[in-house]
Each structure stands twice: as C-alpha cells, then as structure tokens.
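ARCHIVE CARD
SHELF: 3
SLOT: left
DATA:
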Amino acid sequence: MPIKIQDDLPARQILEDEHIFVMTRTRALSQDIRPLRIIILNLMPTKIETETQILRRLSNTPLQLEITFLQTMTHKAKNVLETHMENFYYTFDQIKDENFDGMIITGAPVEMMDYEEVEYWDELCTIMEWTKTHVHSTFHICWGAQAGLYYHYGIPKYILDSKVSGVFEHKMLTPLARLFRGFDDVFYAPHSRHTEVRREDIEKIPQLRIMAESDEAGVYVVGSNDDTQFFIMGHSEYDADTLAKEYFRDVGKGMDPEVPKHYFPDDDPGKPPLVRWAAHSTWIFSNWINYYVYQTTPYELKDGVFVPQEQ
C-alpha cells in the first residue's frame, strides 16, 4: 500500500530502506485516486519511533492512505525537536472541521496517573467526542484504549501488582470477526503496561464485545458493536527490540525490572529477542483498514469528486 506522507518526514527513508512503498504528497498529486484519510494522535514521547512503527504496520494493503499527525496543545513534546512538531503535526483546532476515514490514538506513559490528572485530559476528551461525528472508525492502543473505554463507557482501570511486560499468547473470542481474518487459532502480541481493564466491567456494557484475550495478560481486543471503535490493550506495532529497549532503560535507571516474559530466548536478555507477533501485527492493522474503514466509510461522489458524508 502506498502511504502518503510529507516528503521530508524522517520515517520516509527508514521505510523505503525496508522496501515499503512510501508515496510523497508531490507524487500523490499525479494520481487520480481518493486516498483514505487517516489521522494519528501520537501521545508517545518517542514521536519519530512511534510514527515509523505505525506507518510500517499500515503498509500492507493496496490502498492509498493519506496520513495526518495530530498533537495536543496542552502538552509540549520534550523528546523531539520543536521543528519536527511544527513541520509534521497539526493541532485539533486546525483539523476539527474535517472528516477522516480512520483514526489511531496511541498509548502514553501516564497510566499510573488518574485520567483527570493528565494535563491534556480535557483536550483528549474533546478529541474523543469529536471522533463520534468526524471519524468513521477509531483504533485505540494501550493507554489510549484504556482512556477511550473510560471516556466513552465509564470503564475504570486498575493498577497491577507488577508490570505486564512481554509477548503473550492470545485466543480469539469472536473468530468470525473480520478483524481476525487470516489469524491462527492462537496468536502473539507484546504488552507493556502497569494497569489493566477487567472483563467483568466490560461485560456490563451492552454496546461492547470482548474479541480476544490472553490467559496471562488479560483482555486484549474490545470492539464496539457498531465497529466504529476498537480498543487494543497491547502494542502490536512494537519493533523487535522495543521491549528490550524498555527493559535495558529501566535497568540503567536502577529499577530492577522483571525480564519481559516469552521474549528473550531462555529468558536471557543477552540473546536477541524472538519475534512472534509480526504476522498478527500485519493482519490486525490491515484488516481494520480494509474491513472497518475502506469498505464502509461513508463517502459519496459529487461533481466528480469524493466528499465525506456526515458521520
């Protein structure tokens, strides 16, 4: 799939080196095709790394995607140059009158705080409310998923006794759902979090269904019955070494973290990690784009131009 991005986005060269088809906006202008408009609210501190990870996962269908990156105004990114944010990110005020086919809301390293204590919580609530009328389907990741479940449905999170970190086996509870097309009976996904949402709270909400879970890591995928919202509790977008970087970072801080489970061969951090989630990661993003965005997004043709209908 050609991913339409700005010509000088840092992720471009990395993806092209991996033989991923990246289409600059300059080239896209020469094609007579309507790209799907995908907006990504990137709440992670590692902006460029997260941009690259997600764009990589969106690169496995023949569809053209036009990517817009969104930032919060109430929090200033500290781990990336200000010029990067100015060049590649929009604020909510700049896009609030537009419609998008799909949206991704990432995780954020604020899970130990109460939601209302997060400095951009009010702004995030405004954005999540806006998705109901301006986004066809929204894909929430990790803390973004917990925050979405709390805002939209009042589902609380719980602090765990120890961090869930590693690559865990999962099973499908709705195996006929199109989100799981191409999946094996069991699949693997990375988790890295200190909090959880619980099955019993989700089951009280008739508008939601639990779609996949792990015996070790708990609830993994929750979907709304109308398919406009998906909540993914793990990090299927992670690179092979992301959990390792987190582990060695915490070791360097003297935090004595547990070794991520089922990740290093023989649980030996001296050995390269074993990647078991790449196929799942490819399928879950591709299936979301294909079945829940492309095939159902409400666009109509007017005067030879595709325009969004009211959501």
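SLOT: right
DATA:
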Amino acid sequence: MANSGSGNQGIAATNPVIAAAEKLGSSEEQLIRAVTLSHLVTIHIKSKFGRLSALCGVTVSGTGASCGITYLLGGGKNEIKAAIQNMLGNVTGMMCDGAKGGCAMKVATCTSAAVQSALLASKGMTISSTNGFIENNAEKTIDNFCRIGNEATSDIDKLVLEMMLNKIK
C-alpha cells in the first residue's frame, strides 16, 4: 500500500476509499477506478511537494482519497476539483514531526477531512478562491500548497529537529 515511498500515505490513499466503496455498495470496477484516482492524485501532488517537508505528507494522500471518494459519490471533474480545494483549504498546515505513533491520529484526521471534503464537493460546495492560498483553478491551488511545503517550512524543520534532539540531552 505504499505511495511515494510512504506506508502511511499509501494506507491513507487506499483504505478510506475502500471503506467508502464498501459502504456505498460500489462495483469492483468503481472501486479500482477510485483507488487508482486516489493514488494518481497523491503521486501528482507529491511529485511537486517533494520527498520531505515540514508539512505532513498525509495531507497529500488525504487529498487523493477525497478525490476517490468523490468519484464514488458520482462526482465528475468539477466535483473532484472541488474536493482538492476543500481538502487543501482544510488540512494545510498540519506539521510533520517525524514518523511516530501520532501519525495514526493524523491519518484519522485527514481521513475524516477527506470524507467531509468529498461530501461537500459532491453537493457542489467548495472553498472559495477568496480564501487564503486557494485559487479558482485546483492545479494552481496545488502549486500554492507545494510552495508552502517547499519554500516556507525550512525554519519549522530546523526548530522541530532542535526540539527532538534536545529531548535526548
């Protein structure tokens, strides 16, 4: 279940979509398409996001899961774009402080947000481009999210690393 080198991200991109498909009584083909969409969106964002960031990578796979769930709810291209906007407008800023037990809680948080974002998107509701870094275009929103992760978090990385190392002393 790994995605982009991460087991947590693979689980977060797969299991929520499978659970939604089971709950909705989706066909095997719909399930396969939805899980594939989830993983492809995750890989697409992760390719711009980079391997390491101070932002939690599960926010990326949660976005993919939200797209897969939106598809299962009958959403098309516009609803899937709205799911991206909703997820990134919701969970951006979740900090990564190393792989550990707390990651499971972050996966749970992003899974809940993925379902919520998909439900809203399937009803035509999306975070407006007047909000923060959200753009009218989902791809531009992804680019802004990745800029935050790649350009704005180096000081956070240093600070968290210092805190972790000071615990050892």
